[in-house]
Amino acid sequence: GQGDVTRILGSASFFWKNVSVAFFGMNHSKYHVGIDMHKPDGQALIRKLAARSDIVIENFKAGTLEEKFGIGYRQLREVNPRLIYVANTGFGQWGPFARGRASYDGLAQAVSGLTAITGTPGGHPTKIGNYLGDWYGACMSALGALAALRWRDRTGEGQFVEMAQCEGLLRAMDWTWLYAGLTKRDRPQTGNRDPVFSPSGVFRCKDGYVALVAGTDAEYRGLCRVLGKPGLARNGRKDADRLDGMIQAWCEKRTRSEVEKIARRHHVPAAPVMTGKDHYESRHLRARRSVWEHEDPVYGTMVEYGPAPKLSATPARIKWAGK
Question: Is the pTM value of this prediction over 0.85?
Fold first, then answer.
């Protein structure tokens, strides 16, 4: 094997002290050990570790650890009946689309339907900009593991927890698949607009972009006052193109901060479209330690995204960037 591939991913062709920046965000405060599963001694070591573990998590192709290495759930539960075994795959452990099929985040997004609804109306299907399938699958796997731990507290029994990336994203598609089933039509792409109400979008300013939403009638009346056209409050929502054009014309004469301040003064929800650089400089995120600056003994001064959620009694912390 080659170890954790995120150590060498060329994210934006940038490495920090010979390590990919992709590695740090997923490896805070973790220890690592390398085991060669191809060798009997390595397989025996994994069985020994599983015998004293609460949870085992893996993300190999369906059936790989059981059939190729003899260390899948059925084998490991023999040495630890209380074991919770979490298998995170692209498309599940069984079914006609699962066996022998590798997955990447982009494939999971595509199969889930997320790619199909993302993008401008009538445009090319668009992948979300980050590894949402990986992140969402991991979060749902953790949730499944916690539910299994609760069950074990009551019964003393371990169990197998299966999480398919594409199915996690599919459950995040809210009403999309139900709409298709009932109408026999696919949900259309809407770009930055909300598919339910208007206005809701992203608008260009002098120094970047803002997101602006007027979901309630009161917020919409406030927006009309902001635009200097209170008469629009009667029926202006019906012409989304015209309304968006008026908002854009108003925003492009102002900075993000000016738009946000004026909108909030009239009780219209608005927020800047922030970038990673904005996060780095954000007083709000730093105050909440959602952006966390710390000294790492190996990598020096690091500024990273901090733990979430925030726990009052047992707040999480970053002990080191990665080992």
Answer: yes
